[in-house]
Amino acid sequence: MSIEKLRPSFTLTEDRLRELAPVVPEAFADGKINWDTLREVLGEHLEDEAQEHFGLFWPGKRDARRLAALPSKGTLVPQPGLGVNENTSHNIFIEGDNLEVLKLLQKSYSGRIKMIYIDPPYNTGNDFIYPDDYSEPLDAYLKRTGQMDETGIRLTTNSKESGRFHSNWLNMMYPRLILARQLLREDGVIFISIDDNEEHHLRILLNEVFGEENFRANISWQKKYSVSNNQKGIASIRDIIFVYAKTDSFTNGLFPRTEESVARYINPDNDPRGSWKAVDYWNQVSPEQRPNLVYTIINPNTGKKIVPSKKAWKFSREVYEEHVKTNRLWWGRNGTNTVPALKLFLSDVKDGLIPHNWWTYEETGHTDEAKKELQELFDGVAPFDTPKPVGLIKRMCQLANLKSDDLVMDFFAGSCTTAQAIIDLNGEDGGRRKFIMVQLPEPVENGKYKTIADIGRDRIRRVIKQTKKKKKGELDLDTDKVIGFISFELTRTNITEWKLYLGNDTSQLELRFGQTETPLVESWKPENLLVEIMLLQGFPLDSRIHHMPEFKKNDVKEVSSEYCQHRLYVCLDARVQPETAAALHLRPEDILVFLDSALSDEAKIQLADQCNLQII
């Protein structure tokens, strides 16, 4: 076992190198890459820097890539009272800058999320853009949201007059997409809404981050059902939704059958196998192209012979003979058709419709319908201007092949349409799908709500209330408790940061050592530090925290999760009593976290022999 100092850590680069090492182990030595060996291994596949190559380049790209690997200096703290069924729910709402939040979730949620949907701000010159600070991103966020004294940095728009109009938007998206990919499961998928302004740039960017081979669809969503007479130029009535899988492990789902699609199957000959529809027996190739599909067919009712002349048959002679034997050919109601059709039975086809990339408003809803959905929830007044319809997100869930216990994330959550879609789906089929919503507390001009994050939280609360009212008497107790969410807020870490000093003044160095004698910030709270410890140890935010009453002289908490095989024990008391340390029954894989000053050296050594001891 071991004793380790618990410190904030972010290992995106190290994790990616760890994935690379088994692929080219000869290029690694003492944990470092030998570039010469790696070049030799790659051989002709290595790009020649002297040659021009295809890709998307813009000012700031290198800094944006580095930003994805820059550790966050923040943490998440609970906001008790802002959620619903906070002790039992597995749904998460996070108020904060999604870049920092995505970093903080890497240890706990990497490879766990089945579906991500984002509706990022469109780059129109009027919409909000996240102005990232490449040196101190967390500080910039805290200043913008009034959590630090200096409030000079404002939430901004990306003016088209700016020489970096497209670059600013790409710099905002690039690091977030890199981090988002890490969170997806191997069979996971991401959906991204966008309009014409950045469609072509985003497509190339997604090819770089996710790989061109993982592109799945460019969906056109009909967002409007009519065009205004006041419209100038060419009206846009559709948005684009890009679909990218993480790997080829992703298998898309089918769309549910509609009454119209089922009505196409009939049974005019009372076939005992049930309803069917006629399928063309012709192929779309000429006899010369497929001579093996050219043979004589005889109508059994008229005796007439049919020999292909312009098109070949769709099936081989052997398959045709099997169709005859099993009575799968249809010669018309009178049996005199010149060419047969194949009887395709409803019972034999896939349990759903093949998805397509044209989504009409009749199938998914439109922008006006989305506003009406908000108005119904918010007493007749929609507090958010650009919501997406719930039906649109549900259609994505169908395409994502979402199962009843999968995890969905939206880190540009807005008014939280995605959360409502997941709650609605669970209410329809009894599923236990979970969501993580992340939204920046962007100020809004609304008398009731201060920020968009406030709107999103309240929408979830109202949807939960509405669902319980509709399903009264239908939901069992456990399901009723699961319908809820826990709310968190991004803020600065509880652990003091060591400030690097490169000077020669020993007094300054002594001062820095003095400032770090206490490893925690002055205003730290046990409940906030507990969440930070959970994230650092890879425990998700919905982990169950159990106070252990058997310890009378210390407050010891046990943290457990179905995603972690080991257990986490935390005691943040100033002094851990000897009887407490002696009574802990620990397994070698368990993690125990104490304050460094709370234990004697002898107690630390004894506990380190039993488990993984982490001290702060």
Characterization of the model:
This protein has 20 helices and 25 strands. It is of the alpha/beta class and 616 residues long. It folds into 3 domains: 62-256 and 353-492, Vaccinia Virus protein VP39 (Rossmann fold, 3-Layer(aba) Sandwich), CATH 3.40.50.150; 259-348, no CATH class; 506-615, no CATH class. A 10-stranded mixed β-sheet has the order 4-20-5-19-18-6-9-11-10-17, sandwiched between helices. A hairpin with a 2-residue loop joins strand 2 (28-29) and strand 3 (32-33). Helix 4 (98-104) packs parallel to helix 7 and helix 14 (417-429) packs parallel to helix 15. The model has no long low-confidence stretch (mean pLDDT 87).
**Computed CA radius of gyration, to the nearest angstrom:** 30 Å
- Class from helix and strand fractions: alpha/beta
Number of domains: 3
Per CATH, the superfamily of the largest domain is: Vaccinia Virus protein VP39
Strand order of the largest sheet: 4-20-5-19-18-6-9-11-10-17
* Oligomeric state of the chains in view: single chain
Number of strands: 25
CATH topology of the largest domain: Rossmann fold
Shape: elongated
Estimate the strand proportion.
15-25%
Give the count of helical stretches: 20
| CATH structural architecture of the largest domain | 3-Layer(aba) Sandwich
Proportion in helices: 25-40%
The termini sit apart by 17 Å
